[in-house]
Amino acid sequence: MADRLSALEQQLLDLQQKLEKLEQRMDAGARPAEHAETMRELRPRTVVEPGATRGGTLPDAPAVPRQATSEDEELAAIAFNFTTCITLSGRSLIILGGAYLIRALTESRMLPASAGVALGLAYAVLWILAAGRAAGKGLKGDATFHVVVATAIAFPLIFEATVHFHFLGSQSSAIALAFLSALSLAIAWRFRNQIMAWIITVAALMTAVVLIVNTGAVLPFEAFLLVLGLSTLWLGYDRKWSLLRWPVALVVDFVALGLVLRAIGPERPDPPNMVIGLLMALVGSYIASFAVRTLVRGRDIVLFEIVQTAASLLLGLGGSVVVVRATHAAVEPLGVISLALGVGSYAVAFAFISRTHGKSVNFYFYTALALVFALAGLRLLLGDTLLILSFCALAVIVTLLGRRFIHPALLLHGFTYLLGAAWVSGLLEDAGSSILGDAAAHVRESGWIGWLVLLASVGCALTLNRKRESQVGLMTRVARLGQVGLLVILLGGTTIYLVVILVTHLLGHTLEQGGVATLRTVVFACSAVILAASARRWEIHEMGWLAWVLLGGTSLKVLLEDLRYSGPLLLFMAFAAIGIAFILVPRLLSRTRPVAHSG
After folding, report:
1. Burial class, 509, CB count within 10 angstroms (exposed 0-12 / middle 13-18 / buried 19+)
2. Residues 6+ apart with CB under 8 A from 362
3. Are 517 and 556 in contact (CB under 8 A)?
4. Is the alpha carbon torsion for 270, 274, 280, 286 positive or negative?
5. Nearest partner of 489 among 449, 432, 541, judged by Cα
């Protein structure tokens, strides 16, 4: 019995000591882990008599139920969190008080403005580093409070030093913003603290926009925003913080739009070359980052990259072209940069061909980029003649590559280049005028360059033989329809024009409208037969589809035009031509073997 009383006295003494230890830790702001450990130590333990069997307990010292112990721990944790928040809030207020002390010394001229601003920035940097130190120790609450206080000190100080004290110029304030943002984001990246990254990013965005509004300087802050955008982009890649890049990119794009509007306005405060350089940096930097991620890291294009690429092309490349036209700045640098980006995009796209046989979305993405850059660069650098020659060469080369790699995107590019050559040369306009308008009055002489475009169109159409292909996709069909349709328009319009000129020369007077209508009917009917024969010879079903379309259009034309303007003899020729076409086209197309196609 005496041994049992001694054991109880010792246990009560231990409990008293542990309670004193808990009070000391609560007063000193102990960590949650230490507090929980102390609470576990305070749990009543069973007392075992000497010589008692294992597991025996004292009858007058029952164990405390587990549920009561859990509730005590939860209440202690809540009390600790509340105490911690109050403590950190008090510490933050003291830190802010130090910042206001520095401001009071500066405003009272006890400190020079330069020294006050420098001291305030150093004070903010100190607490940014303190936030990093706390994050490194796993104290997320301390880190969050410190970064909030540092943000509340640093960014308003940069604003006041720029707008009120005029100590910092626009470029200096942009550099200060960049330094603070880079330091904070580096710490957030190092310790994987996404909350810190969001706080700094939002504060930096708001400060930059407010400084733009109050100073009227856009160039330096747009440069800072671009750097911030690229930083958040790569943070998203590395730390999977994918939402962080969206608001920054949105602000970057809106400020770029404002930069373009300022550059083409009546005052034009910014040098055009610097505006163009920054806009092209917007395009090049984002697209280069996307290329590194997709090509080097082997990732697929995501939604943000598609949206930001479209915005960059519209505001960066399109805005640069608008600024060049409005300010009469030199176009050569912009053209060279655009053409270089086009070549680079084609190179990246063909790297994906070797890896994925051109089946990935990345290949379509970079070929589309290459097409836009190449068209813009060539248009800016070359005159009409050289531009037409370049378009014709690219049309044939890219179409052959599309045939070589059996890729529809390249076939579409070949058609686009060919269409550009026909448009710039005027041949497409001439052919349209011959088919729909006055076959002679509104047609201008395109000269040898027009014949070159026509030859390139024929060459591209001859590459469409698909006998070795077992499947044809929708994009391939669209490309072939475009190339064949363009060839029909160019050849048909040119033929009508030449016959009208020849007949006019032989008769000595202009051909009447009825004769022109009959001539068009004969040319369209012959074109339908030629298309049907070509579809049978080379098994290109798109030619057969166009033959049917041409037959239907010609029949409607006879009803609307020939019956109205042509005489009996001319109507005989028209009906004979369309009748022969109706006999031959179905027979030719019925012998064309069907080819399987993929949806």
Report:
1. exposed
2. 294, 295, 300, 301, 349, 352, 356
3. no
4. negative
5. 432
Distance CA 545, CA 538 (A): 14
Rounded CA separation 124/100 (Å)? 12
Structure tokens at 481: 């329809």
Do 357 and 371 touch, CB atoms closer than 8 A?
no
Does the pTM exceed 0.90? no
Rounded CA gap, 110 and 172, in Å?
Answer: 24
| Furthest-apart CA atoms within the chain: distance in Å | 144
Q: Which amino acid is at 239?
A: R
Distances (CA, A) of 264 to 321, 328, 332: 11, 11, 19
In contact, 293 and 235? CB cutoff 8 Å: no
Burial of 113 per CB tally in 10 Å (0-12, 13-18, 19+): middle
AA letter at 464? L
Copy the structure tokens of residue 64.
């405390």
The size of the chain, in residues, is 599
Q: State the amino acid at position 47 in one-letter form.
A: V
Give, as one character, the DSSP assignment of residue 217. -
- Given the structure tokens 């970064």, which residue do they identify? 147
Place of tokens 């020369």: 505
CA angle 436, 440, 446 (to 5 degrees): 95
Tokens read off for 370: 């290459």
Q: Are 566 and 510 in contact (CB under 8 A)?
A: no
The gap between the terminal CA atoms of the chain, to the nearest Å, is: 93
Q: 390-432: per-residue pLDDT in tens?
A: 999 999 999 988 888 777 888 899 999 999 999 999 899 888 8
Residue at token pair 């120790």: 137
Q: Is the pLDDT of residue 352 over 80?
A: no
Give per-residue burial for 426-449: e unless 16+ CB within 10 Å, then b: bbbbbbebbbeeebbeebeebeeb
